[in-house]
Amino acid sequence: MKYAIGVDVGGTKIESVLINNKGRVLKKHILETQISKGKQVVLDNIEAAIISVLDKKVLGVGIGIAAVVNKEGVISPPSKMPFLHDFNIKHYFEKKLDLSVVIENDANCFILAEHSFGAAKGKKNAVGIILGTGVGAGIIINNHIYEGADFVAGEAGFMLLDIHRKDRTTYSFPGSFENLCSGPAITHYYYKYGGKIKDANPKIIFSSKEAAAKKVVKETITYLGIGLANISTILNPEAFVLGGGVSKLSFYSMIRKEFKKHSLKQLHKTKILKHKISDSSGSIGAATLLLK
After folding, report:
1. Distance between CA 289 and CA 292 in Å, rounded?
2. Average pLDDT, whole number, for the chain?
3. Which one, of 13, 15, 8, 106, lies nearest residue 66 by Cα?
4. 271 CB-side CA count, 13 A
5. Where does the pLDDT of residue 189 fall: very low under 50, low under 70, confident under 90, or very high at 90 and above?
6. In a 3-state reduction of DSSP, which class is residue 103?
7. Which of 61, 64, 208, 230 could share a disulfide with 213, CB 3.0–4.6 Å?
8. How far is residue 83 CA from its own chain's centroid?
């Protein structure tokens, strides 16, 4: 049996897991990222997360992070942690922990976990879409992660879907996939259209009968359908697997219908699936980097 540690570094929390090569989680630890406290605190928190699940038998540590990461382990924009830009996080932790360390984009880790143990298992070509605080994509082509010439493949959140939109709901471009379909985008437009529920979130908005909520739901589904249709036209995956907080909404039949309206007939058999692995898919996928 082989063992590895996976760490998912998010804007709010850091999750670490110890898994075996069957995908079984043996240990798990969660703590706050504390981005507002700066670089060293975040690095110390990542280290603490790793140590909390450390076992002497591990092959190494895989770290997934919401950023562009090259093979040397250097982080570059876009990311929610600009203080880590141009920083070699791989070398830092290899020196600190005396372990083999692999760094990967978080969306790539997500689809790797789903491809190895979850909804995309058995599919040679699949795309994972994370719908949460932002929107990102991980791409599997012929059973391998596709990263592109400059490791930027999968930054689907920046894909423009409406050039007339001017609202910036995240750090991505106005009118982009992320600025129209992420959790913050859904909440932003709900209040812009006159929503009255205090402290609303996507789940509450999708359940509301308000006119503002209905308008946001219709727009979100439309743009999700268009976004997936655009990606499908280029990559023709067997399946999309949706993850992130927004993916937990009961909207899959609506998205499939909208997808078919905007895609070629030959693509209508493309599956649009909810993730099968728990919220630990990012950390499990990061550990899987060492177990492939």
Report:
1. 6
2. 95
3. 106
4. 15
5. very high
6. strand
7. 208
8. 21
How far apart CA 68 and CA 79 sit, in angstroms, is 7
What pLDDT is attached to residue 283?
96
* Lookup: tokens for 93: 């932790």
Question: pLDDT digit string (tens) for 204-243?
Answer: 999 999 999 999 999 999 999 999 999 999 999 999 999 9
Among the listed residues 132, 129, 90, the one whose alpha carbon sits nearest the alpha carbon of residue 111? 129
Report the alpha-carbon distance of residue 119 to residue 275 in Å, rounded: 6
Inter-residue long-range contacts of 178-182, CB under 8 Å, 24+ positions, other chains counted: 178/134, 178/135, 180/219, 180/220, 180/223, 181/131, 181/135, 181/220, 181/223, 181/224, 181/227, 181/246, 182/131, 182/132, 182/133, 182/134, 182/135, 182/157, 182/246
Sign of CA dihedral 85, 88, 94, 96: negative
DSSP-assigned letter for residue 160: B
Classify residue 12 as exposed, middle or buried by CB count within 10 Å of its CB (0-12, 13-18, 19+).
Answer: exposed
DSSP H/E element including 117 = helix 106-117
Tokens 């949460």 belong to residue: 132
pLDDT bin (cut points 50, 70, 90) of residue 78 is confident
At residue 169 the predicted structure's pLDDT band, cuts being 50, 70 and 90, is: confident
- Pair 156, 177: CB distance under 8 Å: yes
Domains of the chain: 3-109+280-291 (3.30.420.40), 122-274 (3.30.420.40)
DSSP letter assigned to residue 44: H
